């Protein structure tokens, strides 16, 4: 069970990432006025083992990039939520086989009838990603157009193609599409994190994908296809290990948080955030209480676009 916390980074050793401090001691990502409570791990409202409203019974779920990390944890949560079938994809066959075996064992331990393998899909989670790399865009010594374009292939073209296939199958079934985005798509200033600012290729390509999913959502009836983009929190992964960052150095979120949030986002409970971008850390009950009605009046809030401008008359947001 998580609660509202203020992570004190001032006494922490600040790790070096890409030759730059990963997080500045003056910025605390747990402090926000979006909602009162910021979570760092799963909690009852989004936990499928505790909330029967999140049941995925009868649904087939496809998760890309799910052999480890966030994607694998999401697959486990959908098994916990009694999904009829969970399909996962990955780059390496041996890791895919291992992940399938672990998910089947998880289902067996919970006495779930979930099959882990493909057919018509009800829930699509786009989690596969081209990871961040240091270097400015197109500048001397930075990332070249060829390198940036390759990242666009991973972070935009791949999800776009999967979305196209998803939208064209099972037309009479309710669909749920979840785009795993990143805070890097909207936070790129050095005062937040010099490390993120030093690798704009990642945020740029994920922001481009976020804009694509905004347009998909605008043309989608949420009763037929519900679309949500999420920042999955800061999860300790193989990337951090390769960068030499120890888990104890930063206030990482527990992987249960994005895993269970994805299950919640694939239900009608999350209908009010259709087309929006949200952080998994935000308490969903507080989010609904504070913003459900406001979203009906504000078409731009928490959507990818130009900051400060809203509406057809281009009025400035105060």
From TrEMBL:
This is NAD(P)-binding protein. Belongs to the short-chain dehydrogenases/reductases (SDR) family. InterPro entries: NAD(P)-bd_dom_sf (IPR036291), SDR_fam (IPR002347). Pfam families: adh_short. The keyword Oxidoreductase applies. Keywords: Oxidoreductase. It comes from Neurospora intermedia. The keyword Oxidoreductase applies.
